[in-house]
Write the structure tokens for this entry.
Amino acid sequence: MAQPIRRIVTGHDAAGKSIILSDDHPVQNHPMSGADVGADFVEIWHEGAAVPTLTATPAAEPNARPFTIMPPSGHLIRTIELYPPSAGGKRTVMHRTRTVDYAMVIEGEAVLHLTDSEVVLGVGDVVVQRGTDHAWENRSDAVTRMVFFHIDARFDPGLLATLPQPLELME
């Protein structure tokens, strides 16, 4: 719905000089878009390792993998365009992930729902989401675009003992 995402990937040539490897829209291999979903998920890059190895060129296209909401390991960056209610947008299900997420609104307005509260976010606002139950909603008349950086994480045993069991995670 909004302007397509452009992804520029850098690397090195045989002499070690920095070069542009690709400059295009990122490959999308998933069904997570359209009015039925109420949002468009745009996968930008996924690294399976917590500390990536820098090579001259990537071994493969990082989006040529089965789609998952959260990375099974490592980290993932994506944009999500939340549709307004008039275009099929709806509040997401309340969910918890085993990740630390940095979520930034770059266009529009979003509502972050927690167990017993909510907060309205505008352009430039950043949420540091730390494994809590949450949901997202766009109540406005326009598309909201957010950037999400998801990092694989583990729950502290003390915290885990206080959470509802069995712990239901969206993955």
The CA atoms of residues 108 and 144 lie 4 Å apart. The longest helix spans residues 157-162.
